[in-house]
Amino acid sequence: MTAAGVKAQPLERTAPGGNDSPLQRVNAPRTFFRGFGGTVREVWQYRELLGNLVRKELKIKYKDSVLGFVWSLLLPLVQLGVYWLVIGKFLGAGAIPAYGVYIFCGLAVWTLFSEVLSTATTSVVYNAGLVKKVYFPRELFPLAATGAALVNFGFQLVILLAADVLAGISSHQWPDLAKLPLPLLGLLVLVVWASAFGMLLAAANVYLRDVQHLITVVLMLWFWVTPIIYNVSRVGRTLPRPLYQAYLMNPMAPVVFSFQKFFWPQGQGTEFEFDGNVYGRLGLLLVIGLAFFWLAQRVFAKAQGNFAQEL
């Protein structure tokens, strides 16, 4: 009832043909446990826009840059050179066979993971203008960050393959194609977990901007508890078994192992190779990651209703 005692009528609009039709609310709220399937269908319907957002992410990153995509290769190459020199030579980790390939297996996947998280975290805030003006699934922003990071990962994969060829020529050991499903499964696990974290962080950063600074610190710490530049066998010998098993619960560890198993044949059969069941760990992580992705999307969906106001 209105102040005058007249019952309010639903908002209506006049169609071009003169027929009146009620206004329909865009993105009507749903319960927490419903709506995931509808969002997936919406994302598919807006797949062309998703592609445009991926291209936008790449163009913005290298805007006014002379070298462009070359920068995606320079950073991991510089990191590779520093770690190879300092840790491989000065600190004696060079005993690990084909140490350059060993490092780059981890650096390539870590760069992908960290780029997804850092870019997705700020994706909604940096696109505030679009959020306020037009409706489309807001999940496209963190998903576009994942897509752009995968493009950059493709360039790093070329370097890894080139390093594999050089190491194969000198050692006469080549990747076993029968193990190719391992890195593919590892990459899938990485994308699922990174996308889930990206959606959660993107939503949280809208309400608390400190998140984008906090994630930088978290990624730095996470890097050092992931077996990228040191061998996991030493960790197993140093830590008590319960702590070592807790250490292996890091979802990035099996992903790194999966790439080492295929791209680093020089380490097979040595003490530096992880001898656990990588397939089993990746399968478990994929199941948990898919459940986590569903949860992250539902939290994102509940939070996005106030994005425009917060931005």
Characterization of the model:
With 311 residues, this protein is an all-alpha fold. It has one domain (34-303). 67% of the residues lie in helices and 2% in strands. It has a two-stranded antiparallel sheet. Strand 1 and strand 2 form a beta hairpin. Helix 2 (47-61) packs across helix 7 (140-171), helix 4 packs antiparallel against helix 7 (140-171) and helix 8 (181-207) runs antiparallel to helix 12. The chain is globular, with a radius of gyration of 24 Å.
Low-confidence stretches: 1-18
Q: Going across the major beta sheet, what is the strand order?
A: 1-2
- Mean of all residue-level pLDDT scores: 84
**Secondary-structure class:** mainly alpha
Number of domains as seen in the coordinates: 1
- Cα Rg: 24 Å
Number of strands: 2
Strand content bin: under 5%
Quote the distance from N terminus to C terminus.
Answer: 33 Å
Overall geometric form: globular
Topology as a string of helices (H) and strands (E): EEHHHHHHHHHHHHHH
How many H/I helical runs? 14
Largest sheet: 2 strands, antiparallel
Helix content: 55-70%
